[in-house]
Amino acid sequence: MQSDFYLDERQRKKRRRRLKLKIYGGIFLFFILAVGVAYLIVYSPFFQIKQITADGKEVDGKEIIEDLKNFFAGQSKITSFLGAGNILIWDNKKLAEFHKNPEIADLTIEKDYLERQIRINIRERERFGMWCLQAQTNADHTQTNAENEISPRESALSPRESAFCFWFDKNGVIFAEAPFVEGNLINNVDDFSGRSLKLGELVLAEKFFSNLLKIFEVLEKSDLGIKSLKLEKLEFQEIITESSPKIYFSLRIDPKFTLAAIESIKNLGLERIKYIDLRVENRVYYKLK
């Protein structure tokens, strides 16, 4: 009986030793694997980027690349340690947090792990028209700009020439300065409201801007050759053509009914009309000269 007891004890010790060896062996293998993976990620050229490309028409692709390098490397201590040259830290999901140049509508990243290349796809905003903040001249003929904001600038020329003009897209976002242009070749809004705007902001609230787009569409279909509009007081939510006869539109209502109204009045002879008032839905008012 005693010999059986010693035999069982020796077997238990052997099993414990084997279990310890398996545990220590597993820990050692895991450590070796972790070191290998860490070396592969940090020091191996396998994850080191060979080339980054970004093609832009109006924006500087090289500047975008540098901005994104700093952005991704600054996400955490780990990404900072890995560095901007590591392909793993370039994450499309993080781009929503990236502060883009106002001229850029969208950014996406394509990664080629085999070639170790990154391509930055830039979708730039398209010019729909010009938004001109008209000069608000003080008594001493000077203007003051709000800090970090776009405001009308000083000029000794005509009010139209003293405007600060900017491109805006079909979403109503102003994104770049525009040159002074006269004529009816480009959609244009002269803003006399006296407000300031920042690049990247909407020129109008979305519900009003969608109607503004439709007003430009109505004017194009009417063949009146009118592309310039005037916004006098923002609180009135109205916009006026700058040609003769003047046409008054409301930004609060869908202008789809106005095209038929304009066509009817054209038959009377526009030279006889002083103004056309389309500010009431499904109603048309006009005044003869």
Account of the protein in words:
The chain crosses the membrane at residues 21-42. This is POTRA domain-containing protein. Keywords: Membrane, Transmembrane, Transmembrane helix. It comes from Candidatus Wolfebacteria bacterium CG1_02_39_135. With 289 residues, this protein is of the alpha/beta class. It has two domains: 47-124, Roll (Ubiquitin-like (UB roll)), CATH 3.10.20; 129-288, 3-Layer(aba) Sandwich (Rossmann fold). The protein has helices spanning 2-42, 61-73, 77-82, 206-221, 258-266; strands spanning 51-54, 104-112, 117-124, 129-133, 164-168, 174-177, 188-191, 228-231, 238-241, 246-250, 273-278, 285-288. β5 and β6 (174-177) form a beta hairpin. It is elongated, with a radius of gyration of 33 Å. The chain starts with a helix and ends with a strand. 21% of the residues are buried.
CATH topology of the largest domain: Rossmann fold
Tell me the fraction of residues in β-strands, as a range: 15-25%
Query: What is the domain total for the residues?
Result: 2
How helix-rich are the residues, as a percent range? 25-40%
Structural class: alpha/beta
- The whole-angstrom Rg is 33 Å
Q: Could you state the order of secondary-structure elements as H and E?
A: HEHHEEEEEEHEEEHEE
Biggest pleated-sheet summary:
9 strands, mixed
Mean pLDDT: 81
Question: Spatial order of the strands in the main sheet?
Answer: 6-5-4-7-8-9-10-11-12
> In one word, what is the shape?
elongated
